[in-house]
Design brief:
alpha/beta, two-stranded antiparallel sheet, 2-enoyl-CoA Hydratase, Chain A, domain 1, 14% strand, single chain
């Protein structure tokens, strides 16, 4: 049974009509299949899908990113990689089933794979904690990223989470510290790292695994510091203002590419990734191969420097400042200004000394007259 979003009613009506025509043993009895009418309806369906999905607003994009039928990390791991060997546990507390991790081969290249997994049905969603990782999940990722760094293995990460798990137990075990350590570890890796946001990239739970050399993002995925519902509740005191919140946060792939927070958009079939899994799989494989090829040609020091400059430069061009920022010119602007002021003072030192003496003489004269 297909699942439809609230703005897909017209699509649902056409597909129901097509299914009836394709079934010769329908309620009206045995009849012939009207292929001409089916073809016409299929054309109408394609036009409707393109019309709706080419004009999605940010809140509708959020709903598509959360779609129940959307392909999850497990689907991509099963179909993109060979010889996947799962690795479990953080060696401190236990196993977190909301993430799938292990060694695999991608086009004969050994890699470390990490994927946040929401689950496909009610039972697996409960088992996977709806993709919300706990501290042990992030510490497991840190452990495996360090192994990858030690043995020179590229790290490929699939991101799909509403956020880190906010439960009492998770907070008691150091959720914030685990997220911070994961970001720190990601930034220090000297091997190629690629993060792919395939659905929902929510809050620190996503950025903990998205501090990579390359960040790829599906066309209808989202990436934000908070959910639109949470933002609306805080800013407008009204959880129904989700469209205003989603628009203000610029959480869509197009907005994030303009802000240079992500590096590439992977286009989806009309109607979303769930409507043509084979096509999205093929496009994702090409994108990962291209990015991996670029990063494998870089040295360890270059990979670390590229990653550092990438995140330092976020917001510099379209944000508070238009000046780019790197580790070399972090303070150069201020230092140059100080040097300029110093040179001006030296050039006019006799004038400044005379002025100081004049003010001093005037001050002494006033004291004497009193």
């Amino acid at each position: 049974m297909k699942n439809y979003l609230n703005f897909e009613n017209d699509i649902k009506d056409i597909e129901v009509e097509i299914e009836k025509l394709q079934d010769p043993y329908n309620n009206e009895g045995i009849s012939t299949v009207d292929t001409g009418k089916i073809d016409k309806l299929q054309l109408d369906l394609d036009k409707k899908l393109k019309g709706i999905y080419s004009n999605l607003d940010p809140w509708q994009t959020t709903l598509v990113a959360r779609h129940e039928d959307r392909p999850k990390s497990k689907f991509f791991i099963d179909n993109l990689f060979k010889n996947f060997f799962p690795l479990h546990g953080d060696r401190l507390f236990g196993e977190d089933k909301s993430s799938i991790t292990g060694l695999a081969n991608f086009d004969r290249q050994p890699v470390m794979v990490i994927g946040q997994e929401k689950g496909d049905d009610l039972n697996t969603r409960i088992e996977r904690n709806f993709g919300m990782m706990k501290p042990e999940g992030y510490r497991k990722s840190i452990r495996l990223m360090k192994i990858a760094d030690k043995f020179g293995l590229p790290v490929i990460i699939f991101i799909d989470t509403p956020g880190a798990y906010p439960g009492v137990g998770a907070e008691e075990r150091g959720q914030a510290e685990a997220i911070a350590k994961s970001i720190e570890c990601s930034l220090s890796l000297g091997v190629p790292t690629i993060s792919i946001i395939i659905g929902e990239g929510g809050s620190g739970g996503a950025i903990a695994l998205a501090s990579s050399n390359k960040i790829l993002m599906f066309e209808n995925a989202i990436y934000s510091v908070i959910s639109p519902e949470g933002c609306a509740s805080i800013l407008w005191r009204d959880p129904k203002k989700t469209l205003e919140a989603a628009t203000a946060m610029k959480l869509t792939s197009k907005d994030l590419l303009k802000l240079k927070i992500i590096d590439e958009i992977i286009l989806e079939p009309s109607g979303g990734a769930h409507r043509d899994r084979d096509q999205i799989l093929k496009d994702l494989k090409k994108s990962i191969s291209r990015s991996l090829g670029e990063l494998l040609a870089m040295s360890r020091d270059d990979l670390i420097e590229q990653k550092k400059n990438k995140f330092l430069n976020i917001g510099r061009e379209n944000g508070l400042s238009k000046n780019t920022l790197s580790s070399d010119d972090l303070f150069s602007g201020n230092i140059n200004k100080i040097i300029q002021v110093k040179n001006k003072i030296l050039n006019k030192k006799f004038l400044i000394i005379s002025l100081v003496f004049s003010i001093g003489f005037l001050f002494l004269s006033l004291l004497y007259l009193r």
